[in-house]
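== Sequence and structure of one protein ==
=== Format: two labelled lines per protein ===
==== Data for this protein ====
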Amino acid sequence: MKIGIVGSGNIGSTVGTLWVKAGHEVMFSSRRPETLGNLVSMLGNRASAGTSEEAAAFADIGFFAVPFSAWPSLAEKLAPVLVGKIVIDAGNPYASRDGIIVEHVKTLGRGSGAFVAEMFPASDVVKAFNTLYYATLAQEAGREGERLAVPVAGNDALAVAKVAGLVRDAGFEPVTLNSIDRARDFDAGTPVYNKPMSAVALRKSLGVPV
């Protein structure tokens, strides 16, 4: 699968690296793609670097790990390129960093995933990979025994299933929810946020049948 990473910081580079190692083709993007040379060189010929527009055009699935305040400008630029594609939102709105957009998310009252989905009406937006610290993702991927869980929420069942497959490919166990509005239950500040736990424990916390 071809995956375009928009926002190649700690989360984007970590998850993208796991996907390259799982056999996917990944384009990492940055406003300065030349700064990604060491990363793509280390990962080999399944990794490449480009602009956010190039990553979106390249991708079957776009993975966004960006400051939440960047979403409006990115959506204006990239929504037309991502029509009919899956958009994974891995971001979190933080008042100390993102400013007024956090109040807009609160006013909507449906959580950050639904807020992003409204900006990409012709894409299938799925919330995932926003709950675990990047170092946890790097250190615990594919661990022996019971894997750590990653919640996945979206409106389209096929899109959710594809993202769940990518969660498994990255070395984690997906816990799926069938509405993008359910992403508010694992937004920053919720009881499960940044709390590494098993799929059984996460399902229990989110009220998902085992």
Remarks:
- The first helix runs from residue 10 to 21.
- The mean pLDDT is 95.
- The radius of gyration is 16 Å.
